[in-house]
Amino acid sequence: MGTQKSNEVSSGTGRRALLGAAVLGAGGAVLGVTGTARADGARHGGAHGGLRSLPRPTIVGHRGASGYRPEHTIGSYQLALDMGADIVEAGDLVPTKDGHLVCRHEPEIGGTTDVADHPEFADRKRTKLLDGVSTTGWFTEDFTLAELKTLRAVERIPANRPHNTLYDGRWEVPTFEEVLQWQDEQTRRSGKQVWIYPELKHPTYFRKQGLPLEERVAKLLRMHGKDGRTSPVVIQSFEPTSIERLNKLVDNPLVVLLSSANSRPWDFVETGDPRTVADLVKPAGLREIASYAQGIGPTLDLVIPRDAEGNLTEPTTLVTDAHRVGLILHPWTLRNENPFLPADFRDGTEADAYGDVFGAYRAYFATGIDGVFTDQPDTGLLAREDFLNG
Ligand code: G3P
Ligand code: CA
Asked: Which SUPFAM superfamilies is this protein grouped with (predicted)?
């Protein structure tokens, strides 16, 4: 069992229903974390460091504004920023063969670049075990940065986002170093601090190949003077031991991502730690996370589970339990298109049509979450405005 995500792709029909108590209750709670300060607050100077300066609920541009542009491109990051996202997920980080960090959602890049159209790379196609899952395609760790730079990004899910294919071929695969420079340029240009939210992808997989991620990220952050507790860089990973390692290298705000309840972080699988995500979201698991991280990024289903038909049910106690130990919550991922919404918020069955996403935002915001990852930051910002204005 690895870190497969529960809301990455879904389909089917559904009926819209009003969500009763979850929508109506707890509106005011979202503005403040009421839990106790984290146990090791001294190192980070308080519960959340610079994270406290972000508006709440915080709107995180997921892979940029990936609802409108091919994900993890400078074009996608720029649009998220121009729309007003509070923080941009730039990017999901994976390494090249020669040790550079680049922004791709996965090391396999067959679906997010035009690599298949490059005959010179046809013999790089491989089948590998990636966190226990047999995966076929082209992998960043088999390319030098110079080779990767000859590729261009394409839309990953054209069936859901046909308009985005207009931008296929327009942008390169960005490096993390380019993102850090872009962040500085945009901060200067706008006069407002730009925040980024990089994620370390498959750290155990890459460490075993001699391409450890944490040290590389820490080195770049130090070089750019962005490794402090109030630095505008929040770092996330699905592997808790990777976040623990980062906690010893940098002082940035750190977030542990949590996939479906029955999944097991891949570092736990490799080290024989039997705990699943269901264990980590219990009070003892959350307390442990709070000793080295400032937040969690749970799948939305850990906040409000869905029933067998895909409809939202009642919220869990996760928000309260996490806040009690001083952790913030940034669940993922709200997307406007029908297939990604809870069944009771879909509108028809078209895969590229929007459902009642504002209704879904209301339900999730009402739980008291501190922010949310979204592919359409403009929608998220309007939903926040609605929510805060009652
Ligand atoms: O990083 C939050 C969310 O992005 C985790 O899921 O698969 O989109 O990286 P993923
Ligand atoms: Ca991510």
From this structure: PLC-like phosphodiesterases (SSF51695)
